[in-house]
Amino acid sequence: MDTALRKYTSIEDEPRQTSVDAGAPFDRGDIILRSADNVDFHFHKLLLSLASSFFSNMFSLPQPDSLDDDADRTKHGLPIIPVTEKSVVLRKLLSFCSPIYDTDVPSLENLDIVMSVLDAADKYDMKRVGVFIVRMITAPRFLEKEPMRVFAIACRYRSEAETLVAARYMLRFAVWEPAYVSELDFISGSDFQRLVKYHTSCGQAMTQLTRLWSTYPLPLLDCKFCRKKGVSRLSLKEYQDSVIEALRIRPSVESLLNPEWIDSMVKRAGSCIGCRERAPRTFAEYAKELAFPVMAIIMEIPLDIDFH
Protein backbone atom coordinates (compact mmCIF):
# COMPACT_ATOMS: atom_id res chain seq x y z
CA MET A 1 0.00 0.00 0.00
CA ASP A 2 3.01 2.33 0.38
CA THR A 3 3.21 2.62 -3.43
CA ALA A 4 -0.40 3.78 -3.57
CA LEU A 5 0.34 6.43 -0.97
CA ARG A 6 3.18 8.06 -2.87
CA LYS A 7 0.79 10.63 -4.26
CA TYR A 8 0.52 11.93 -0.70
CA THR A 9 4.22 12.19 -0.11
CA SER A 10 5.73 15.45 0.97
CA ILE A 11 8.95 16.51 2.58
CA GLU A 12 7.53 14.74 5.64
CA ASP A 13 7.66 11.42 3.78
CA GLU A 14 11.34 11.51 2.82
CA PRO A 15 13.78 9.34 4.78
CA ARG A 16 15.46 11.26 7.58
CA GLN A 17 18.50 10.73 9.74
CA THR A 18 16.89 12.70 12.57
CA SER A 19 13.28 12.73 13.72
CA VAL A 20 10.90 15.68 13.76
CA ASP A 21 7.83 16.27 15.88
CA ALA A 22 4.42 15.79 14.32
CA GLY A 23 3.09 18.97 15.90
CA ALA A 24 -0.35 19.70 17.30
CA PRO A 25 -2.43 17.90 18.35
CA PHE A 26 0.30 15.28 18.73
CA ASP A 27 2.63 17.39 20.81
CA ARG A 28 1.51 16.21 24.25
CA GLY A 29 1.45 12.84 25.96
CA ASP A 30 3.42 10.33 27.96
CA ILE A 31 4.56 8.17 25.05
CA ILE A 32 6.02 8.78 21.59
CA LEU A 33 5.21 6.76 18.49
CA ARG A 34 7.87 7.18 15.82
CA SER A 35 6.68 6.58 12.26
CA ALA A 36 8.67 4.80 9.56
CA ASP A 37 9.59 8.18 8.08
CA ASN A 38 10.87 9.48 11.45
CA VAL A 39 7.99 11.67 12.56
CA ASP A 40 7.37 11.60 16.32
CA PHE A 41 3.79 11.55 17.56
CA HIS A 42 3.27 12.30 21.24
CA PHE A 43 0.23 10.46 22.56
CA HIS A 44 -1.31 9.19 25.78
CA LYS A 45 -0.89 5.61 26.97
CA LEU A 46 -4.42 5.62 28.39
CA LEU A 47 -6.00 6.48 25.03
CA LEU A 48 -3.89 3.89 23.22
CA SER A 49 -4.78 1.26 25.82
CA LEU A 50 -8.50 2.00 25.48
CA ALA A 51 -8.36 1.85 21.66
CA SER A 52 -5.97 -1.06 21.26
CA SER A 53 -5.62 -4.33 23.14
CA PHE A 54 -2.19 -4.62 21.50
CA PHE A 55 -0.92 -1.50 23.24
CA SER A 56 -2.88 -2.29 26.40
CA ASN A 57 -0.99 -5.57 26.69
CA MET A 58 2.29 -3.88 25.87
CA PHE A 59 1.87 -1.26 28.60
CA SER A 60 0.85 -3.91 31.14
CA LEU A 61 4.26 -5.56 30.87
CA PRO A 62 6.89 -4.64 33.48
CA GLN A 63 8.72 -1.47 32.44
CA PRO A 64 12.37 -0.70 33.21
CA ASP A 65 12.93 1.62 36.16
CA SER A 66 14.76 4.11 34.00
CA LEU A 67 15.68 4.66 30.40
CA ASP A 68 18.89 6.13 29.12
CA ASP A 69 19.01 9.10 26.78
CA ASP A 70 19.65 7.06 23.67
CA ALA A 71 17.77 8.92 20.91
CA ASP A 72 16.39 5.64 19.62
CA ARG A 73 14.79 4.86 23.01
CA THR A 74 13.76 8.15 24.59
CA LYS A 75 13.06 11.74 23.71
CA HIS A 76 12.49 14.49 26.27
CA GLY A 77 12.42 11.73 28.86
CA LEU A 78 9.55 9.90 27.10
CA PRO A 79 9.86 6.34 25.78
CA ILE A 80 9.81 5.94 22.00
CA ILE A 81 7.89 3.16 20.26
CA PRO A 82 8.96 2.77 16.60
CA VAL A 83 6.22 1.62 14.22
CA THR A 84 6.29 0.62 10.56
CA GLU A 85 3.50 2.96 9.40
CA LYS A 86 4.31 6.20 7.61
CA SER A 87 3.33 9.47 9.22
CA VAL A 88 0.40 10.09 6.84
CA VAL A 89 -1.19 6.83 8.04
CA LEU A 90 -0.18 7.12 11.71
CA ARG A 91 -1.62 10.63 11.93
CA LYS A 92 -5.04 9.42 10.81
CA LEU A 93 -4.90 6.27 12.93
CA LEU A 94 -4.14 8.20 16.12
CA SER A 95 -6.79 10.76 15.23
CA PHE A 96 -9.35 7.96 15.36
CA CYS A 97 -8.05 7.05 18.82
CA SER A 98 -8.72 10.58 20.05
CA PRO A 99 -11.86 11.12 22.18
CA ILE A 100 -13.07 13.86 19.82
CA TYR A 101 -13.16 11.81 16.61
CA ASP A 102 -16.91 11.17 16.96
CA THR A 103 -17.56 14.87 16.35
CA ASP A 104 -14.37 15.89 14.52
CA VAL A 105 -14.04 12.99 12.08
CA PRO A 106 -10.59 12.60 10.50
CA SER A 107 -10.62 12.92 6.72
CA LEU A 108 -10.07 9.89 4.51
CA GLU A 109 -9.23 11.17 1.07
CA ASN A 110 -9.58 7.93 -0.89
CA LEU A 111 -9.79 4.17 -0.52
CA ASP A 112 -6.02 3.74 -0.63
CA ILE A 113 -5.81 5.75 2.58
CA VAL A 114 -8.78 3.82 3.98
CA MET A 115 -7.05 0.49 3.39
CA SER A 116 -3.77 1.67 4.90
CA VAL A 117 -5.48 2.89 8.06
CA LEU A 118 -7.62 -0.25 8.28
CA ASP A 119 -4.54 -2.44 7.93
CA ALA A 120 -2.89 -0.54 10.78
CA ALA A 121 -6.04 -0.78 12.90
CA ASP A 122 -6.04 -4.55 12.29
CA LYS A 123 -2.40 -4.83 13.18
CA TYR A 124 -2.85 -3.06 16.52
CA ASP A 125 -6.21 -4.71 17.26
CA MET A 126 -8.18 -1.45 17.21
CA LYS A 127 -11.57 -3.04 16.58
CA ARG A 128 -13.73 -0.01 17.32
CA VAL A 129 -11.62 2.16 15.03
CA GLY A 130 -11.93 -0.40 12.24
CA VAL A 131 -15.71 -0.59 12.58
CA PHE A 132 -16.02 3.20 12.50
CA ILE A 133 -13.87 3.52 9.38
CA VAL A 134 -15.77 0.83 7.47
CA ARG A 135 -19.00 2.69 8.18
CA MET A 136 -17.54 5.69 6.36
CA ILE A 137 -16.77 3.97 3.06
CA THR A 138 -20.31 4.10 1.66
CA ALA A 139 -20.00 7.88 1.36
CA PRO A 140 -20.79 8.95 -2.22
CA ARG A 141 -17.20 10.04 -2.88
CA PHE A 142 -16.12 6.41 -2.42
CA LEU A 143 -19.16 4.46 -3.56
CA GLU A 144 -19.79 6.33 -6.80
CA LYS A 145 -16.18 6.13 -7.89
CA GLU A 146 -15.17 2.61 -6.81
CA PRO A 147 -18.20 0.52 -5.79
CA MET A 148 -16.45 -2.84 -6.23
CA ARG A 149 -13.67 -1.79 -3.86
CA VAL A 150 -16.24 -0.59 -1.33
CA PHE A 151 -18.04 -3.93 -1.57
CA ALA A 152 -14.84 -5.94 -1.15
CA ILE A 153 -13.62 -3.87 1.82
CA ALA A 154 -16.99 -4.00 3.59
CA CYS A 155 -17.28 -7.73 2.91
CA ARG A 156 -13.76 -8.41 4.13
CA TYR A 157 -14.54 -6.72 7.44
CA ARG A 158 -17.93 -8.49 7.63
CA SER A 159 -19.87 -5.24 7.77
CA GLU A 160 -23.33 -6.32 6.67
CA ALA A 161 -25.03 -2.95 6.17
CA GLU A 162 -22.18 -1.46 4.15
CA THR A 163 -21.77 -4.61 2.05
CA LEU A 164 -25.46 -4.53 1.12
CA VAL A 165 -25.33 -0.82 0.25
CA ALA A 166 -22.40 -1.47 -2.10
CA ALA A 167 -24.05 -4.55 -3.63
CA ARG A 168 -27.21 -2.56 -4.37
CA TYR A 169 -25.23 0.29 -5.88
CA MET A 170 -23.49 -2.17 -8.20
CA LEU A 171 -26.85 -3.12 -9.70
CA ARG A 172 -26.34 -0.03 -11.87
CA PHE A 173 -23.80 -2.04 -13.83
CA ALA A 174 -24.01 -5.25 -15.81
CA VAL A 175 -22.52 -8.10 -13.83
CA TRP A 176 -19.51 -8.30 -16.17
CA GLU A 177 -18.71 -4.57 -16.21
CA PRO A 178 -16.86 -3.86 -12.92
CA ALA A 179 -13.13 -4.41 -13.29
CA TYR A 180 -10.97 -6.50 -10.98
CA VAL A 181 -9.73 -4.75 -7.83
CA SER A 182 -7.02 -6.05 -5.52
CA GLU A 183 -9.34 -5.98 -2.50
CA LEU A 184 -11.20 -8.96 -3.99
CA ASP A 185 -8.21 -11.09 -3.05
CA PHE A 186 -9.18 -10.67 0.61
CA ILE A 187 -12.69 -12.09 0.31
CA SER A 188 -13.68 -15.65 -0.49
CA GLY A 189 -14.81 -16.95 -3.85
CA SER A 190 -18.06 -17.85 -2.11
CA ASP A 191 -18.66 -14.21 -1.16
CA PHE A 192 -18.05 -13.04 -4.72
CA GLN A 193 -20.26 -15.80 -6.14
CA ARG A 194 -23.07 -14.63 -3.86
CA LEU A 195 -22.67 -11.10 -5.20
CA VAL A 196 -23.06 -12.41 -8.75
CA LYS A 197 -26.07 -14.50 -7.68
CA TYR A 198 -27.62 -11.48 -5.97
CA HIS A 199 -27.23 -9.39 -9.13
CA THR A 200 -28.73 -12.16 -11.26
CA SER A 201 -31.66 -12.68 -8.87
CA CYS A 202 -32.44 -8.95 -8.82
CA GLY A 203 -32.39 -8.88 -12.61
CA GLN A 204 -34.68 -11.87 -12.92
CA ALA A 205 -37.08 -10.34 -10.38
CA MET A 206 -37.64 -7.33 -12.65
CA THR A 207 -40.23 -9.40 -14.55
CA GLN A 208 -42.53 -8.58 -11.62
CA LEU A 209 -42.95 -5.14 -13.15
CA THR A 210 -45.20 -6.64 -15.83
CA ARG A 211 -47.98 -6.62 -13.22
CA LEU A 212 -47.49 -2.90 -12.62
CA TRP A 213 -47.72 -1.39 -16.10
CA SER A 214 -51.22 -0.11 -15.40
CA THR A 215 -49.96 1.71 -12.30
CA TYR A 216 -46.69 2.83 -13.88
CA PRO A 217 -47.45 3.20 -17.60
CA LEU A 218 -44.40 3.71 -19.77
CA PRO A 219 -43.84 7.21 -21.14
CA LEU A 220 -44.76 7.75 -24.76
CA LEU A 221 -41.94 7.66 -27.26
CA ASP A 222 -43.94 9.34 -30.01
CA CYS A 223 -46.43 12.16 -30.38
CA LYS A 224 -49.70 12.55 -32.27
CA PHE A 225 -47.83 13.78 -35.32
CA CYS A 226 -45.64 10.66 -35.33
CA ARG A 227 -48.70 8.46 -35.03
CA LYS A 228 -50.59 10.47 -37.64
CA LYS A 229 -47.74 9.86 -40.06
CA GLY A 230 -47.79 6.20 -39.12
CA VAL A 231 -44.03 6.03 -38.57
CA SER A 232 -44.15 4.23 -35.19
CA ARG A 233 -42.56 0.80 -35.50
CA LEU A 234 -42.45 -0.28 -31.84
CA SER A 235 -45.42 -2.06 -30.32
CA LEU A 236 -46.34 -1.59 -26.66
CA LYS A 237 -45.38 -5.21 -25.92
CA GLU A 238 -41.96 -4.75 -27.52
CA TYR A 239 -41.52 -1.52 -25.59
CA GLN A 240 -42.36 -3.19 -22.27
CA ASP A 241 -40.12 -6.17 -23.01
CA SER A 242 -37.23 -3.83 -23.86
CA VAL A 243 -37.57 -2.05 -20.52
CA ILE A 244 -37.66 -5.35 -18.63
CA GLU A 245 -34.59 -6.57 -20.52
CA ALA A 246 -32.67 -3.38 -19.73
CA LEU A 247 -33.53 -3.79 -16.05
CA ARG A 248 -32.66 -7.48 -16.12
CA ILE A 249 -29.12 -6.66 -17.25
CA ARG A 250 -28.76 -3.67 -14.92
CA PRO A 251 -31.45 -3.91 -12.20
CA SER A 252 -31.56 -0.20 -11.44
CA VAL A 253 -33.72 2.63 -12.75
CA GLU A 254 -30.49 4.35 -13.80
CA SER A 255 -30.52 1.87 -16.69
CA LEU A 256 -33.41 3.83 -18.18
CA LEU A 257 -31.32 7.02 -18.12
CA ASN A 258 -28.57 5.59 -20.30
CA PRO A 259 -28.39 7.91 -23.34
CA GLU A 260 -27.48 5.05 -25.69
CA TRP A 261 -30.45 2.97 -24.56
CA ILE A 262 -32.84 5.92 -24.85
CA ASP A 263 -31.53 6.71 -28.34
CA SER A 264 -32.00 3.10 -29.46
CA MET A 265 -35.57 3.10 -28.19
CA VAL A 266 -36.64 6.31 -29.89
CA LYS A 267 -35.04 5.13 -33.14
CA ARG A 268 -36.94 1.84 -32.94
CA ALA A 269 -40.14 3.79 -32.31
CA GLY A 270 -39.49 5.98 -35.35
CA SER A 271 -39.90 9.07 -33.20
CA CYS A 272 -39.66 12.53 -34.70
CA ILE A 273 -36.89 14.96 -33.79
CA GLY A 274 -39.04 16.65 -31.16
CA CYS A 275 -39.83 13.35 -29.44
CA ARG A 276 -36.15 12.38 -29.49
CA GLU A 277 -35.19 15.64 -27.82
CA ARG A 278 -37.84 15.21 -25.11
CA ALA A 279 -37.06 11.54 -24.41
CA PRO A 280 -34.18 12.00 -21.90
CA ARG A 281 -36.23 14.39 -19.76
CA THR A 282 -39.28 12.14 -20.03
CA PHE A 283 -37.36 9.07 -18.89
CA ALA A 284 -35.73 11.00 -16.04
CA GLU A 285 -39.16 11.88 -14.68
CA TYR A 286 -40.43 8.34 -15.20
CA ALA A 287 -37.39 6.82 -13.48
CA LYS A 288 -38.21 8.76 -10.31
CA GLU A 289 -41.65 7.12 -10.22
CA LEU A 290 -40.45 3.64 -11.16
CA ALA A 291 -37.70 3.76 -8.51
CA PHE A 292 -40.21 2.89 -5.79
CA PRO A 293 -41.47 -0.44 -7.18
CA VAL A 294 -37.98 -1.38 -8.40
CA MET A 295 -36.47 -0.81 -4.96
CA ALA A 296 -39.37 -2.67 -3.32
CA ILE A 297 -38.59 -5.68 -5.51
CA ILE A 298 -34.84 -5.47 -4.80
CA MET A 299 -35.37 -5.22 -1.04
CA GLU A 300 -37.01 -8.64 -1.12
CA ILE A 301 -33.87 -10.24 -2.57
CA PRO A 302 -31.35 -11.45 0.07
CA LEU A 303 -27.62 -11.01 -0.48
CA ASP A 304 -27.12 -14.35 1.27
CA ILE A 305 -23.57 -13.69 2.55
CA ASP A 306 -22.71 -15.16 5.94
CA PHE A 307 -21.49 -12.24 8.09
CA HIS A 308 -20.96 -14.24 11.26
Written account of the structure:
The chain has 308 residues and is mainly alpha-helical. Helices cover 47% and strands 6% of the residues. It is built from 13 helices and 5 strands. A hairpin with a 2-residue loop joins β4 and β5. α3 packs across α4 (111-123) and α12 (259-268) packs across α13 (273-298). The model is unreliable at 1-14 (pLDDT under 50).
Task: Give a short synopsis of this structure.
The protein is mostly helical and 308 residues long. Helices cover 47% and strands 6% of the residues.
Give a quick set of tags describing it.
disordered N terminus, mainly alpha, 47% helix, single chain, 6% strand, elongated, 308 residues
What is the averaged pLDDT score?
86
What structural category characterises the helix and strand content?
Answer: mainly alpha
Largest sheet: 5 strands, mixed
Question: Could you say which overall geometry the principal axes of the C-alpha atoms support?
Answer: elongated
Percent range of helical residues: 40-55%
Amount of beta strand? 5-15%
Order of helices and strands: EEEHHEEHHHHHHHHHHH
